[in-house]
Specification:
By secondary structure, the chain is of the alpha+beta class. Helix content is 55%, strand content 13%. Strands 1-3-2 form a three-stranded antiparallel β-sheet.
Length: 92
């Protein structure tokens, strides 16, 4: 199992989130919702920090967008303009 905050754990989180988003391009959720409901590997469910770091890396890459509501709630979702690029990345 990858340690919380580890590069391997973040890489696993990135791949899991991207796979989910390609299969469900309309999905948007909070960090907590992603960890609980997106079918991430059990090892990642207990490591929200890895998922958070992975999401931040994906935002910088331009593959994930984040919207912040007036209440300060952050919703993460796929940048659908980049879905072809994400799919190519996942297919190696």
């Amino acid at each position: 199992m990858a340690e919380s905050g580890s590069p391997k754990g973040m890489e696993q989180a990135v791949l899991a989130v991207l796979r989910y988003l390609v299969q469900h391009p309309e999905a948007k959720d909070t960090l907590d919702g992603i960890v609980r409901w997106w079918g991430l590997p059990v090892a990642l469910e207990a490591q929200a920090e890895n998922v958070h770091q992975g999401l931040e890396a994906l935002i910088k890459q331009g593959w994930v967008v984040v919207r912040t509501s007036g209440a300060g709630i952050r919703l993460y979702g796929l940048n659908k303009d980049r879905i072809a690029e994400v799919t190519r990345f996942l297919n190696g």
